């Protein structure tokens, strides 16, 4: 496979397209947790029950087209190679739990990869919509349509007082987890992030790294999501999160302006050094690549670098993960080999970007 074809096939919509406030908000995600009334929760269900759920979705939803997102394909976890599952996790299309601990799990994927419906994970059904930029309201509206579509064929486990019933008590109620991924380099540089994160936590929200719970905020990318699902409506949960995100966007832009005004030369030097590393390195580790990609993205946003699209950060933060590197190579790679391949992929991607721009 040529590098161009690999990029074309690997990049999801949220990674390549612009959305509102895309200079800071990389993506918006809405996820519903649902269970089917006549089956026990996945933590207690048998293999036969799990297979029945997969069959139900294969019969009723696989190869069906829904509005503008294309046809759904059912992907079964036990039919995938470990690297293929890793790639789906790295693209944020399935959870690590589904990939590692759900031998009878599956996922309905839309053609444009904006929608993934995980099956037999912690809950029977997890509907996920992933949009570029700050589009939480749009993602919620679309997730509700999908929720209604699925409910045409299944009866959800629902209690009039408690709402949707889920395996984990933290999801009972709306079953809604809304989140955004944000690039906040200036708040990190000015150390304002150290006081902002505790303040966000006090509002009933949680701040995590790029791959959610337990992950590190590499490349100054933070994932912010709601913790409360019970006692609030879906609209209120999303509205509260949007309010906080908009404040963060404003604070990040102010911090960028302050850094630009007080330390422009140092900042420009940092950006160009990082660009030089990415464009010329022969070996690069994940953390260094993430740090340099963040600097370059900031340099693009501030106008220091021309001829490179800022979505290159979205792409390369994902494409340089272990699963993708091994998929592109077509074999398993030791950590040192991945560092070499990562550097080569980044160089090739930058070169492709410059050629496209005519540089």
Describe the overall structure.
This protein is of the alpha+beta class and 359 residues long. The chain has 13 helices and ten strands. It has helices spanning 3-10, 13-16, 47-60, 82-90, 96-101, 136-151, 185-189, 193-201, 234-280, 286-301, 311-319, 322-329, 335-357; strands spanning 25-34, 72-76, 106-110, 115-119, 125-132, 158-159, 163-164, 176-183, 205-208, 221-226. The radius of gyration is 21 Å and the shape is globular. The model has no long low-confidence stretch (mean pLDDT 89).
Number of strands: 10
Q: What series of H and E elements makes up the topology?
A: HHEHEHHEEEHEEEHHEEHHHHH
Which radius of gyration do the C-alpha atoms yield?
A: 21 Å
Q: How far is the N terminus from the C terminus? A: 25 Å
Helix segment count? 13
Strand order of the largest sheet: 2-3-4-5-1-8-10-9
Average pLDDT over all residues:
89
> Which segments are poorly predicted (pLDDT under 50) over 5 or more consecutive residues?
none
Q: What best-fitting shape do the alpha-carbon axes yield?
A: globular
What share of the residues lie within helices?
40-55%
Structural class label: alpha+beta
Q: What share of the residues does DSSP label as strand, in percent?
A: 15-25%
Largest sheet: 8 strands, antiparallel
């Amino acid at each position: 496979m040529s590098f161009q074809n690999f990029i074309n096939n690997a990049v999801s919509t949220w990674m390549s397209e612009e959305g509102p406030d895309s200079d800071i908000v990389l993506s918006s995600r809405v996820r519903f947790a649902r269970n089917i009334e006549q089956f026990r929760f996945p933590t207690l269900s048998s293999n036969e029950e799990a297979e029945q759920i997969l069959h139900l979705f294969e019969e009723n939803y696989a190869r069906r087209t829904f509005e503008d997102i294309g046809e759904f394909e059912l992907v079964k976890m036990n039919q995938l190679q470990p690297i293929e599952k890793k790639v789906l996790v790295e693209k944020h299309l399935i959870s690590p739990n589904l990939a590692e601990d759900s031998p009878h799990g599956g996922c309905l994927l839309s053609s444009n990869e904006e929608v993934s419906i995980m099956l037999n994970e912690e809950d029977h059904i997890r509907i996920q919509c992933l949009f570029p930029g700050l589009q939480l309201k749009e993602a919620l509206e679309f997730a509700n349509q999908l929720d209604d579509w699925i409910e045409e064929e299944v009866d959800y486990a629902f209690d009039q007082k408690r709402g949707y019933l889920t395996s984990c008590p933290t999801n009972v109620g709306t079953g809604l987890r809304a989140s955004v991924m944000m690039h906040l380099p200036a708040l990190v540089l000015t150390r304002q992030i150290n006081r902002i994160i505790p303040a966000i936590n006090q509002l009933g929200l949680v701040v995590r790294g790029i791959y959610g719970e337990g992950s590190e905020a590499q490349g100054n990318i933070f994932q912010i999501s709601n913790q409360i699902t019970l006692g609030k409506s879906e609209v209120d949960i999303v509205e509260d999160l949007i309010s906080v995100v908009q404040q963060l966007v404003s604070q990040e832009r102010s911090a960028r302006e302050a850094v630009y005004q007080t330390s422009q030369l140092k900042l420009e030097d940092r950006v160009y050094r990082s660009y030089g590393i990415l464009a010329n390195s022969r070996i690069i580790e994940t953390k260094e690549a993430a740090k340099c990609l963040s600097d370059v993205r900031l340099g693009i946003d501030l106008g220091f670098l021309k001829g490179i699209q800022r979505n290159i950060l979205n792409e390369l933060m994902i494409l340089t993960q272990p699963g993708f590197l091994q998929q592109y190579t077509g074999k398993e790679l030791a950590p040192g080999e991945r560092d070499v391949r990562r550097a080569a992929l980044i160089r090739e991607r930058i070169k492709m970007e410059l050629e496209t721009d005519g540089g």
